[in-house]
Design brief:
With 239 residues, the protein is mainly α. It has eight helices and two strands. The protein has a domain of 163 residues. The chain starts with a helix and ends in a 5-residue tail after the last helix.
């Protein structure tokens, strides 16, 4: 029994150190991609004369105005979307769902048939993954040009919904966040929302080429940050 206790505590220490390392990594990545996302917003708005960009912005602003007024009235939908995200991400990791329950004004739950190392992504997915926007994107991709601009309105509205619902739902009282851990959940929440917001803007504005530019800028800024921290601690190399 004593050896079992030691192994259990050793595993807890390893898990804690692993989460701390990943949290620090996510914090560093958040800086680089915050810079890249800010740059992407500037590039996006510089093309505001393009119909798709203008309607996306219109949809986003419309969402910011309307959603706070009706948020409590659509509680069933918000809970359903939250649990749907859990389930879709679980299916991506080949996890079989056993139960899917949504109760208006109360909450919901998704139960998986088995547990695994991917659970932390499944638990936290609704807090960083813009599910509705990602579901609309394939329709946008195959739509004819005359319909694309109107789908852009839905994309903007759905992204506003994601960001607003996240601000209202993310709480340290949430069971998902309690189970994964406050520090790690916060790091994932910040990085995920920054990263996916920039990625979606890049995709709509310039497609794969702009996505590659966005990713390159994000990683370049992260490398610059690491070099800056290294020089701060160890001093600049002699020239």
């Amino acid at each position: 029994m004593r050896s079992g206790f030691i192994i259990f505590n050793a595993m807890k220490v390893v898990t804690f150190i692993s989460k701390l390392f990943v949290s620090i990594l996510l914090a560093l990545l958040s800086f680089g991609f915050a810079v890249a996302t800010w740059h992407e917003i500037g590039v996006f708005l510089s093309d505001i004369d393009r119909p798709i960009i203008r309607l996306f912005v219109d949809g986003f602003l419309l969402g910011l105005v309307i959603l706070p007024l009706i948020y409590r009235k659509i509680s069933f939908f918000t809970i359903f979307e939250h649990e749907l995200t859990h389930m879709l991400v679980a299916l991506m990791f080949f996890k079989k769902p056993r139960a899917f329950l949504v109760v208006e004004n109360v909450g919901g739950v998704v139960q998986m048939a088995e547990r695994g190392t991917s659970d932390f992504i499944i638990f936290l997915a609704p807090y960083f993954l813009p599910t509705l926007t990602l579901l609309i994107l394939p329709i946008y991709a195959i739509a004819s040009p005359k319909f694309k601009v109107y789908i852009g309105l839905l994309l903007g509205f759905s992204l506003a919904y994601h960001l607003l619902s996240n601000m209202m739902e993310f709480s340290y009282r949430q069971p998902d966040i309690k189970q994964i851990g406050y520090f790690f959940s916060t790091a994932m929440f910040i990085f995920g929302n920054i990263f996916f917001t920039g990625l979606i803007l890049a995709l709509i504005d310039g497609g794969p080429h702009e996505i590659l530019a966005y990713l390159k800028l994000g990683f370049d800024k992260n490398i610059d940050l690491v070099i800056y921290i290294k020089n701060l601690i160890f001093g600049k190399p002699a020239t």
